[in-house]
Amino acid sequence: MLDGVTRRYAVGGAAALDGLTVPVPGGACLVLLGPSGSGKSTALRLVAGLEPLDAGRVLLDGADLAGVPPERRRMAMLAQRPLLFGHLSVLDNVAFPHTVRGVPRRRAHADARARLDAVGLPGFERRRPGELSGGQQQRVALARALAAGPRVLLLDEPTTGLDTGARAEVHELLRRVRADLTLLLVTHDPVEAATLADRPGDRVAVLRDGLLQQHAPVGELYARPASLTVARLLGGRTEVPGTVRAGRHVSPLGALQLPVPVPAGPGVLVVRPELVELVPAGSGIAGTVAEVRVLGARALVTVAVAGAGGTARVHAEAPLGRQPAVGDPVGLRVPVDVRTVVPPSEDGERQQLP
Amino acid sequence: MTALRRLTGVGLAAWFLLPLVPLVLWAAADVWRAPAALPQQWGSSGWSAAAAAGGWAAAGRSLGLAAVVAVLGTLLGAAAAAALDGGRLRAPRTITALLLAPVALPPLAVALGLDVLLLRLGVPAPVGVVAVLTVAALPYTTYALRVALAGMDRGYAEEARLLGATPAVVWRRVRLPLLAPAVATAALLAFLVGWSDYVVTLTVGGGQLVTLPLLLGSAASGVGDEPTVAALALSAVLPPLAAALLVARLARGRTG
Amino acid sequence: MARPLPRPGTAPGWPALPAVVLVLAVVGAGLVTVLLQALGLLPLIGVPRLSGAAFGDVGRDLGTGTALSLAIAAASTAVAAVVGLATALLLTGRRWLGAAAALTVPVPHLVGAAAMGLLLADSGVLARWTGMAGWPELVGGRWWVAVVAEYAWKESAFVALLVAGALAGRLGPLRETAALLGAGPWRRLRHVTLPLAAPALLAACTISFVYAFGSYEVAALLGRASPEPLPVLAYRLSRSIQLTERPQAAAAAVVLVVVGLAVVAVAAVALRRSLARTT
């Protein structure tokens, strides 16, 4: 549990992390998601005890960790770089947590061997870390972190330095070894967040400029972003400014019924491109295709809709080969339940948990 | 723990600074009879005595010797480092070992041999001193520049070529400026070798080349003239210290 | 056509020639002359004749001189290693400590010797400040304290800067990782910091040791007249007006070189092992 955690790097300066409060239920995964400079890595270092807190508390099972040095917190970290000890063999790296706790060599090595098997690297015991590929090194680092018997596993952009294949391997491995471990993952990648925080109790906390933007299950972030920042961070593209009046969002797209009550006033309609349906011209909201971009197996179609008060641009996805051409008249259908309205300023409302 | 660390830090700083304190005190003392903790009479008699003993001329000779060693050591070291970096050299490991070997050899042993030989060959003593000291400086210059060349990101040079610079322009506008701090460091190290030497100048120089260390050596082996010793010693510290500060500033300006 | 970009493997090798020739000429000529002289093949007067007499004539002095020089070098290097390592590890966040260490680097050893004399002699500044009656004989005494102190002082700064440079940027993240894996401060020192510092420490100590072993002026200025460390013996014999002592001086110089190279050879093997472990 993080309670009002604050960190300033200069006296009186802007906080790198400002009053962050999020619960992390035991056995669950909490993702800190944000762009670089959002304070998410700082949060992890504060939890680990690698940096002092300026305010707030870090609680583990109700006990304040203030004054507990990193080596007694039982929190292992898997960082962006594997940080294996170059002067030790792969086996001795994995046995390191046992060695420094005075476990007899034979038992330490037996456990380390089992952990190397578990991460799919049997037979690598005698190798030097420098002889391994990046993905293999990161798997050794994971085996080493697990050998420490952590209560919380801290993951600081654990796959950022890896290529696509190795990244998938590490993700798969993390899902497999997770069991009852509490995970705290820092990432800028919403896909990674979604991959690792897929159990019922898992949550994502979105940070920007040291402030919490939203704290919710990953599906809700996609469906109901709380602010423009969250919507953009998760790859949302369509942003239609307008006004909310009597439960409807009024814009060039028309007066659209909203699924949940929203206070009246200016608001931006955000809709994910994959949830917008392209229909033949004549039905739905009438528009003209302004741009088509191919994104792998799908195409992103930008539709300009002229209406009262100007032109709005709405993005939709179509399977590759079935996309319309630029200039085609098309119809758009935006289902009621995917319509979300966020405040027009980027920060939105600061989210506070009860 | 932190208190212990701070205390250790202060103790270590004292270890480095304490030996310099008597130099400063004695250089500013005219009369300092034991057991007083501070001089009874402050003054500059040590400096006058040092000047009268030929301090200025000796400092000039030291500066000249150090400058020549710095220039020769840096030039030869830079050429060797560039050749080693080029990778077309045969037996690069042997050559590296050979150029670094003088670090492991006592200069006195080499000087004792050359002393006899140069006398027989009729080579002027200062030439011999410069040759031995340049060899003593080469390990430092070669190593410093070799490391700098190896660590230089080739991306800058390639980017410059793609932006339209010819190889000559790349050297002048990109590589040399990037190497400037390392060249300055190498020159400083060679300067220090030339400036600090005592035994080679004494042996090979055969008394013809009276540098500041030689003057200091003869003053310090006598007794009872502490102000002169301190003044000579301080004058042997200040020029290399100034050079070191200059190089440090240059290096910081480049990276910052 | 544009010439290709400069690549490794295209710079010529000949620029290394002047440096190589100079080193070979100076070191080669110096060492060969010393060796020939020591073996009686290059007498200043008389007929050249191969003989080991020069070594035999001063055999005892060579033995004690070598032992004494090795002891002085070992003691000063040990102190420099401990002080230098401690300094390197405490440098982060203490710029003044780095400045204090760096200040001693441009100080010539001879100046260091003069300073140690003014500091440690029985009428020195420390004796005056402490007001101690019967100040121990640190300069020119039995235990060569001032000589060891001067080498240790200069070389500790050298060790500190070399080790700090080698650790810069590498140590922090690995120490943090070790802490998160459960290693307390002492375990981190033993299992992470010391192994990482070992290669640079070993290299710095080797250079310091060989320097202290083969250098003349500090021992000549701050030591006692007898027994003589090897370099002092070699220099005194070489200046002797008795020309028969010149081969003996050369013999001392030969021992100086051989022992020095042997130390470096041993250290090089250890360094290679230590490097193989850390990279």
From TrEMBL, chain A:
Domain ABC transporter: start-end pairs: 2-234
Source organism superkingdom: Bacteria
InterPro entries, from UniProt? AAA+_ATPase, ABC_SmlMolc_Importer, ABC_transporter-like_ATP-bd, ABC_transporter-like_CS, Mo/tungstate-bd_C_term_dom, P-loop_NTPase, Transp-assoc_OB_typ2
Query: Which Pfam families does the UniProt entry name for this protein?
Result: ABC_tran, TOBE_2
What are the UniProt keywords, alphabetically?
ATP-binding, Nucleotide-binding, Transport
A molecular function (GO) term = transmembrane transporter activity
Q: Which GO terms describe its cellular component?
A: ATP-binding cassette (ABC) transporter complex
Per its record, how is this protein called by name? Answer: ABC transporter ATP-binding protein
The scientific name of the source species is Goekera deserti
TrEMBL record, chain B:
Question: Which PROSITE patterns does this chain map to?
Answer: ABC_TM1
Q: Which GO terms describe its cellular component?
A: plasma membrane
Which Pfam family, any one of them, does this sequence belong to? BPD_transp_1
Topology in the lipid bilayer: Multi-pass membrane protein
The answer to whether the entry has keyword Ribosomal protein is: no
Where does the record place it?
Cell inner membrane; Cell membrane
Alphabetized, the UniProt keywords read: Cell inner membrane, Cell membrane, Membrane, Transmembrane, Transmembrane helix, Transport
- Name the residues that span the membrane: 63-84, 96-119, 125-145, 176-195, 229-251
* Any single GO BP term: transmembrane transport
Matching InterPro entries: MetI-like, MetI-like_sf
Could you tell me which residue ranges the ABC transmembrane type-1 domain spans? Answer: 59-247
Which CDD domains does its entry note? TM_PBP2
Q: Does the keyword Ribosomal protein apply?
A: no
Family the entry assigns: Belongs to the binding-protein-dependent transport system permease family.
Q: What name is this protein filed under?
A: ABC transporter permease subunit
From TrEMBL, chain C:
Q: Looking at the Swiss-Prot or TrEMBL record, what is one Pfam family this protein matches?
A: BPD_transp_1
Taxonomic lineage of the native organism: Bacteria, Bacillati, Actinomycetota, Actinomycetes, Geodermatophilales
Q: Which domain of life does the UniProt lineage start with?
A: Bacteria
Fetch the InterPro entries from UniProt.
Answer: MetI-like, MetI-like_sf
- Domain spans labelled ABC transmembrane type-1: 66-267
Subcellular location per the Swiss-Prot or TrEMBL entry: Cell inner membrane; Cell membrane
* Organism listed in the record: Goekera deserti
Quote the protein name from its UniProt record.
Answer: ABC transporter permease subunit
Which is one Gene Ontology cellular component term of this protein? plasma membrane
Q: Name the Gene3D superfamilies for this protein.
A: MetI-like
**Family assignment from sequence similarity:** Belongs to the binding-protein-dependent transport system permease family.
